Amino acid sequence: MEKVLHTLYHKNKVYCKQGKVASYIPALAKQDGEKFGVAVMDLSGKFFAVGDVEEKFTLQSISKVFTLMLAIIDKGQEYVFSKVGMEPTGDPFNSIVKLETMNPSKPLNPMINAGAIAISSMIKGKNNGERFNRIRGFLEEIIGEKITFNEEVYLSEKETGNRNRAAAYFMKDVGIIEGNVEEVLDLYFRHCSLEVNCIQLAKLAGMLANQGVSVITGKRMVSKEITQLVKSFMVTCGMYNASGQFAIKVGVPAKSGVGGGIMAVVPNKYGVAVWGPALDQVGNSIGGVKILEDMSKEFDWSIF
Ligand code: GLN
């Protein structure tokens, strides 16, 4: 695998030049679009890695997978899906257009911003600090080490995240969000600003590949049923409005974030992480998607 990975890395790194780093969150605009890393971990914990795999980036939307798991643990599936739907969307991740027209009014799924903000409101805790520590602690327990937080990205998004604010206040109005809207948004901006590198992200992915058991610590983190549920969302909604194309070309559950990370899961085999902050038009890492297409073909990863 090591040799093939090197070849595919150099072949696909050139695509990074064709993308653009996210700039709607001003702090993300500072990222270097030419960075590129890929890490694969098998279920014995063995790593194959190339490129900028030690550099930290913010999880952004990848965090939605983990908050969804916690919300289900906290509130149960019935409650969670009474507030948030299970259907993919052809609209961008930050779209609010369908919130009002859906009947009953609810965000389409937990992987788009509106859905994830609603999910954040379901995380239990005495206060926001405790809720945030639970999310962070959950990730730390999966990988067996500390997870850092990017204060600058958090503050930048908190200051400029008006579209997310609009979605959240609308959801408060129609009863999807309970509690203090600004607190819910604060928690959402915070969990989006947790940082990992490719090695850590591959460990997070490994837990999902391993049916809910951490590959690093051997501890069961979630039930097999919950991992199946989140992996289904990753297949249908994880790559935003390019999820259909990704399913056809790569064919594994995956979740991307505008920090440039993609967490991919090859069930029962590998946890995979790629990072390249230069994004395509949909908001997925441009080099990341390309290398995953090649890796899937080369190693026969498609689950379909
Ligand atoms: N924090 C980002 C936002 O809310 C996450 C979006 C993303 O990664 N697609 O816009």
UniProtKB/TrEMBL annotation:
Gene3D superfamilies found in the cross-reference section: DD-peptidase/beta-lactamase superfamily
This protein's record includes keyword Hydrolase: yes
Binding positions (substrate): 61, 113, 157, 164, 188, 240, 258
Class of this enzyme: hydrolase
TM region(s), chain numbering: none
Reactions catalysed: L-glutamine + H2O = L-glutamate + NH4(+)
InterPro entries, alphabetized: Beta-lactam/transpept-like, Glutaminase
Record keywords, A-Z: Acetylation, Hydrolase
Pfam families in the cross-refs: Glutaminase (PF04960)
GO terms for MF: glutaminase activity
Example GO biological process: L-glutamine catabolic process
Entry EC number(s): 3.5.1.2
Family according to the record: Belongs to the glutaminase family.
Matching NCBIfam families: Gln_ase
Quaternary state and interactors: Homotetramer.
PANTHER family: GLUTAMINASE
Official protein name in the record: Glutaminase
Organism lineage: Bacteria, Bacillati, Bacillota, Clostridia, Eubacteriales
Gene name, Swiss-Prot/TrEMBL: glsA
